């Protein structure tokens, strides 16, 4: 997972500005279109409120992506956003952003699995550059801390552009997210689409592969065929409903709730296809049964070891296709997205002269099923927030030697699956906090009662004589209380 880890000093820009800054964006804006999402790109020129300046806006350093710069007296320009991403399967995809006045260029990870727009604000040994607040004339500190925790990964980017819903925003959902701010200020459609073009290409970590982030609509030239839509089940992450899994055309035959435990999301900030442990084990078992591969060590499946072949061989022919069935917007139907081995058996550069080595692009997850870059690289993915749906269409860059490495088919009937595959009980983070506070409150009450009992004078306590009978009505259950109450509170919070 390439998302930056927690505990990095970050400047949370959505908190600091909340619509007060005026920026210059180089974006693709599309007008609303048909239900199939065939939006026609239309350049739009919008004027920001003038601050009295009459001259032309200052020239900006060239950046290949989304150009952000303070422009108090200028305009907001929306231009084509094709090929504005860089990156690869191993680390994710990023934009080059120009931030502040004078502009500072930063690489910002595009992350549909979080909601804050944040950049590194202090030096770090893992980062080549950061946003230097001392060099910005428009930076203003609000003097409070905001903590954003990411699930796992390492510090690889100079910032993160969170494109999920404000429900996940820190310190609270009242924070206006970056994309919400653009939609509200620029009046663009509440839609964005993402194309990631690293399919079948080596995971080099050099950011040489490209892609496109289109804000405000869909660019028809980036996909082919029909767009298939699945409903967004809850507006926090982009949570979807998965109905079935197939490996080599064979159904795993698991309870469909296993695929959605505790949620299934579409997340560009996750580099792999992550599966709940039971699903992961079933997929690995099905691959070993249906493929022609030789015996592998467990290290290959767990991601700790690479598998290598002679460069003249083609290992992809040894592995099966993997299909994921998603519920259609018509709930009685489904469609399936299929990835070929070229997407989940991923080549790695720099391992020997005669050998080509590969990693397994699927990993086990302790909780959610995450459709990450391993799958997304096969499709142009549309996040249609206006109509609460996520769309998938074949990406024009998901090809190897002219042959596609992904497929999409439908519709299929849903009579063979449950009416809902999403469990009504899900241990999401807010519920865990409620449970923790409840446990702490209970423990505090127990301690208070014990203290009161200890303070009661001895004469008020009943002493049993030898002839007294102790029965269910006169006895109490013993409660073992730790001698260190702080440990009890920490355990409850955890």
TrEMBL record:
Q: Which Gene Ontology molecular-function terms are recorded?
A: aspartic-type endopeptidase activity
Q: Name one GO cellular component term.
A: endosome
SUPFAM superfamilies, per database record: Acid proteases
Q: Name one GO biological process term.
A: membrane protein ectodomain proteolysis
> Which residues does the record list as glycosylated?
330
A family per Pfam? Asp
Q: What's the chief localization of this chain? A: membrane
Which cysteine pairs make disulfide bonds?
197-397, 256-421, 308-357
Keywords attached to this entry: Aspartyl protease, Disulfide bond, Glycoprotein, Hydrolase, Membrane, Protease, Signal, Transmembrane, Transmembrane helix, Zymogen
- Lipid bilayer topology: Single-pass type I membrane protein
Give the domain of life. Answer: Eukaryota
Q: Where is the signal peptide?
A: 1-21
Q: Which residues cross the membrane?
A: 431-456
- Every copy of the Peptidase A1 domain together lies at 53-393
Q: Where in the cell is it found?
A: Membrane
Residues covered by region (Disordered): 32-66
Active-site feature positions: 111, 267
Q: Which family does it belong to?
A: Belongs to the peptidase A1 family.
Q: What is this protein called?
A: Beta-secretase 2
Organism this protein belongs to:
Crotalus adamanteus
